[in-house]
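Memo to structure team: turn this sequence into structure tokens by end of day. - J.P.
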Amino acid sequence: MKRTIIIGSNHAGIAAANTLLENYPDQEVTMIDQNSNLSYLGCGTALWVGRQIDSYEQLFYTTKEQFEEKGAKVYLETTVERIDFYTKKVFCKASNGTSFYKEYDKLILATGSIPITPQIPGNTLENIHFLKKFQDGQAVDQLVSLPSIRKVAVIGAGYIGVEIAEAIKRRGKEVLLFDGAPRSLSNYYDPEFTDEMDHNLSEKGIELHFDEIATAYKGVNKVEAIVTNKGEYTVDLVINAIGFLPNNTLGKNHLELFGNGAYLVDEYQQTSDPSIYAVGDCATLYSNALGKTTYIALATNAVRSGIVAGHNVGGTALASIGVQGSNGISIFGLNMVSTGLSVEAAQKHHMEVLYTDYTDLQKPAFMKENDSVSIRIVYEKNTRRIVGAQMSSRTDISMAIHMFSLAIQKRMTIDELKLLDLFFLPHFNQPYNYITMAALKAE
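Reply from structure team:
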């Protein structure tokens, strides 16, 4: 039997384990995680806190028992204290204090990411929380249920910050949303799109504090105020959603790292040590839009990287096809989706790009159920290759972004898109639909 140890059992680790257990009977799979649960869909935390779903139970999609039935050895509430990369031993400590080690032939690191903690005065006060694990969601949900919690500060207006701000507002609390950037969701969308989201948030009563950086928390035992570069605000609860860093503690002194500390992997998810693979948020990936290695922490990327690593460890050479970083958000009925690079992101990477915008009704004007759709397609100036797309609407236009993801992967040009065969039916779209019209408008 070939011994494979997987450290970390969330999306990437689970995908790797399933791939090995379902396809390679010669594999002895051991899964180790310091958490008491596995497979929590963190992207559902805001839905549960905001009472848009009935309970959190369905946010877990598999169990320890299901893996044991497939033949895996699963150690939960178990900390990996160190790895001896030369004798190929993983040294562990269980929650009951027992120490033991396991030997491996191949090791898959799926240790994920850790929330960025602001190193500012008062950061050890009570009622300052992060949102990562199930237990974090539980703690925030319980606090939001208390009548004494009236004002909540959310630090960071990325996806997690905006989603939890909406959720807490839905629970009837006052919400202050802070970010050092001049707008929300600035990593994914250009200002023309985020302006619409910021108006949407403001209209629903969320107090926006952009271009503001937290400099201290004040309070005796619990947090009572947040201090920024622009003022001081009374709050009862702080939720930090600044972002994440790759959790590289176990291998950072042995493996080659990317600029931000992620494990540098090749297209087979293999690290600089041939017997070690890294998957999910602790590892790099290849961006087809940029044409180079980068870091994008998304659950969908984690799952794909786990599948790729699983097959390679199992003995089937399988290369990753790269990613576009496709993503989406739905807040108070406003849906926004994007893939690849925004104009701002492309410029940061010194890429010369052009873009084409178009706004129209999704369906012909005579259709009663109808909504406006805005689209931006970003393309390289010289090659005319499509490198990004953004869309927003009050209707569900999310499936269209998958086409743009494929367009980026296949290096399609904006000119090829102009005459692409797109069907027409009044129930769905217009004869000259927004995608065709945006492409036709391109310089």
